[in-house]
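Kindly inspect what follows.
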Amino acid sequence: MKGSILYLVLLLTFVSCAEEVFTQNNDDASLTTNTVETFDLDYCAQMKPVKPPVDILYLIDNSGSTLASSFQEIKSQIQSTINTISKDFDYHIYFAPLNASAQDSIQGYPLIVSDPSSIPNIASVNIIQPENLNMFAQASGNNSEHGLQRVKSIIDFNRGNGIFRNNANTITVMISNGDDTQTQTTIGGNIVFDPIVYAQLRDGFKAYTSKYAQSNTITNPLNLESFRFISLVAHSACNGWKKGTTYKMMSADLYDYQGLSDNSTNKDSYDLCSQNYSNMFNAVNNSIKAIIEGYHYDHWRISSANESQIQENDITLIKYNKKNGTSENIPTGAVNGFEYLGYKADQNTRYLPSLGEPATGLIVKLNGTARVIYPDCVIAKTRTPTEYFGYFAIPRDPEISTIRVEIRGQVIPQSAANGWSFLGWRDTLNIKVPGPTDASTIPELNKSGYFLQLHGNAIFTNGQTINVYYKPKAN
């Protein structure tokens, strides 16, 4: 009986020791690696507003009939209309008399400009300040008035000196208390309107426009964004003045031809008799579209990180347009894709209208159709690198037979093939390894302690946890 009791005590003692050694290890250590993080950098191409070029010709009646005090008052008010021209324009304002004198230079009349550098040769023109503008002396005789042809001659003769520019918005302000006589003919002793001459002059004005140039062959076209013929003439007989019927017709014809809609009440003609024309530039100011100069880019910053902080072969670029809602992936490639250049300092990203917008960070080069032009935007998607870990440190010297390793919740055997082996103490060791993709082991993650080395598919990666249970050696 005593022998049976002793046997039972010894058996319980043995089982207790076995559980302590094999399943109830005294110490444990664990490590959870950082997960892969993704980053988005959303940035848009830039632009700058540019003042649209606006060229204005004031053609001012200087016939003998304008000596009347009522017309002299009108002349004094013309100067004030200059101030109503939008300051958002790059303007040239040229003043010429309606009737040429015998010494007419056609190129030497007063010119007001918002930016003198817009004139190629300042010495070739007569630039003045607005407050120094004087009206012209009266011409002798007033039986003929070739106003429409006068407009064309002045514009054509002043293209070479830069007063009237290609691709501009050009406005003629015809101020007359008479009417064009070139478009009149005598039939049976009666003065009547000549539609053929009028049509020729009208078509000459149409030919100034980009609309006309798009469907007709023209040598050296002006290609104007718009051509307005604003007539400030009598709409009825008043003060002994003649109705400016032909000028008013030209205003309406050119307004309708260009499909304008900003001045449907007046169609660019104002009544000289009313003396209410201070707002004649309001419609024009509102109708001229602002110009946006979009920038062009052949490089792009995708991140402000260091090279080692992103996965180089996992960069995604998405180009999209906010205005039309389109988007496309930019592939890698030297023809119509992007090339990763790594970390660059002060790299110019813009190539038009000038080199500029230097950026520091991780840069890609954009090639061909991958280049970015306003209003394009780019979403650059990057992520932290994939890392692999082939070592694990525990703080105390273990009884090797008591070590239990779990990775991803699975028990890893002691094996040089796809398991672990014990290395012993190391003062410092980088626990990163190249792994199956030959990943970088930089920046290093150094540890110290008693190391286990992992082999084969026991090597673990980002976002995974390793747990090691063991019993330290007795001192």
Summary: The longest strand covers residues 338-352. The mean pLDDT is 88.
